[in-house]
Task: inverse folding
């Protein structure tokens, strides 16, 4: 989850000289999901994540949106579907969600809350499967 937070870096560079988002240029040239997947994979490996899981997570980030991909149907796995839906969950018109400001303390608290949720879910899952 933390790895996914980094994926949108580089997403804001597709404005034309008129200041409007250039969807054509974005669709043609954007590779933010590729860079994000690579960044996430590197981070996960450094943190000691299992290599198979690290690849699955990186793939889910790679496929979190089809907005930069050539047309075609993707058959998403359940993990890829969840990541894709999470990416769309807080979207705002005209990509305004990319510019939402958040207090640093609030951001840190939200990450800690997410950590707590992940740990609780992991423990519950481990308990269930033992
Ligand atoms: Fe994205």
Result:
């Amino acid at each position: 989850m933390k790895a996914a937070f980094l994926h949108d870096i580089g997403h804001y560079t597709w404005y034309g000289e008129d200041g409007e988002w250039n969807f054509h240029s974005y669709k043609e040239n954007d590779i933010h999901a590729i860079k994000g997947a690579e960044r996430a994979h590197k981070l996960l490996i450094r943190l000691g994540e299992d290599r198979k899981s690290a690849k699955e997570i990186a793939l889910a980030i790679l496929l979190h949106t089809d907005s930069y991909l050539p047309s075609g149907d993707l058959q998403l796995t359940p993990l890829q579907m969840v990541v894709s839906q999470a990416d769309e969950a807080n979207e705002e018109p005209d990509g305004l969600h990319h510019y939402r400001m958040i207090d640093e303390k609030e951001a840190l608290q939200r990450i800690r809350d997410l950590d707590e949720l992940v740990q609780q879910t992991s423990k519950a899952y481990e308990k269930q499967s033992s």
